[in-house]
């Protein structure tokens, strides 16, 4: 008999994860952007730290993700995992048995007195594909853009990061990031990290690499792929304070975006100054 999907039962009401027991400390994403299928496909490589020695499972949040393989990177072997039933609000709970663990002994401590801390570090690789109906990914056809090129915009706010990659989708757990994303050669990409561009000879695509060494919560990550150009990069002085501004937009919309953005941002800053007396 199938069990109905259950909401999270831990201390975090909107997340299945337990970063107090096993925490993700670094996420590496290696993804291909597929506009034809409207999916991201690739793998997430997670560095995790076991906070409690008696806890033998890594629990992650997912939403609409097709998980097609989980393995440990060192030593390399397939890992046992369970993907729970789908809950409309919270997605599916992904439970991974950590390497070198006897599956018969998976007792999770119920109180702080039972917790024994350790420094066990694991690297877990998860192969996956997003859903074309992902609530976190907005796919625009080329007919919907001014430059006649497709556009992808992500939205990781609320609990939508789990619809982009398997993660502990809570602000209470922050991690460093690295991403390597393949896109069509005619398009650019923006990610919430410093980045560099690497050319790939295969299939007329470009691979972009991004690295963020400052810890961030999953919901702070965004991905934008499209025919975007850096239209203006200048230093503006707002109330005698220097501010570097860079505007990215489609080429056909550059003039309107530049003028509208600058006017609106100045209005916002003036209102902040007027209301609070500082920036």
From TrEMBL:
GO CC terms of this entry: cytosol
Residue ranges annotated for the Aminopeptidase N-like N-terminal domain, each copy included = 26-219
MF GO annotations: aminopeptidase activity; epoxide hydrolase activity
SUPFAM superfamilies linked: Leukotriene A4 hydrolase N-terminal domain
Q: Which InterPro entries match?
A: Aminopeptidase_N-like_N, Aminopeptidase_N-like_N_sf, M1_LTA4H
Origin superkingdom: Eukaryota
GO biological processes: peptide catabolic process
Q: Which PANTHER family match?
A: LEUKOTRIENE A-4 HYDROLASE
Protein name, please? Leukotriene A-4 hydrolase-like
- The source organism is Temnothorax curvispinosus
Q: By which gene is this protein encoded?
A: LOC112467155
């Amino acid at each position: 008999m199938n069990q109905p999907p259950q909401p999270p039962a831990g201390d975090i009401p909107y997340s299945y994860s337990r970063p107090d027991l096993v925490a993700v400390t670094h996420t590496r994403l290696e993804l291909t952007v597929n506009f034809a299928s409207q999916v991201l496909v690739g793998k997430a490589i997670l560095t995790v730290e076991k906070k409690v020695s008696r806890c033998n499972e890594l629990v992650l949040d997912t939403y609409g993700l097709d998980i097609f393989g989980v393995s440990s990177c060192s030593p390399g072997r397939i890992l046992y995992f369970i993907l729970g039933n789908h809950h409309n609000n919270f997605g599916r709970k992904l439970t991974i048995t950590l390497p070198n663990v006897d599956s018969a002994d998976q007792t999770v401590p119920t109180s702080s007195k039972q917790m024994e801390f350790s420094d066990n570090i694991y690297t877990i690789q998860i192969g996956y594909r997003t859903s074309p109906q992902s609530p976190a990914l907005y796919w625009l056809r080329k007919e919907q853009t001014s430059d006649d090129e497709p556009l992808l915009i992500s939205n990781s706010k609320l609990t939508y990061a789990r619809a982009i990659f398997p993660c502990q989708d809570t602000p209470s757990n922050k991690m460093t990031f690295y991403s390597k994303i393949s896109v069509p050669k005619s398009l650019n990409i923006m990610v919430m990290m410093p980045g560099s561009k690497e050319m790939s000879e295969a299939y007329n695509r470009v691979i972009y690499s991004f690295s963020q060494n400052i810890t961030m919560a999953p919901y702070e990550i965004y991905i934008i792929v499209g025919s975007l150009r850096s239209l203006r990069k200048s230093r503006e002085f707002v109330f005698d304070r220097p501010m570097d501004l860079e505007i990215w937009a489609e080429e056909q919309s550059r003039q309107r975006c530049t003028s509208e953005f600058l006017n609106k941002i100045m209005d916002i800053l003036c209102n902040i100054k007027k209301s609070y007396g500082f920036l």
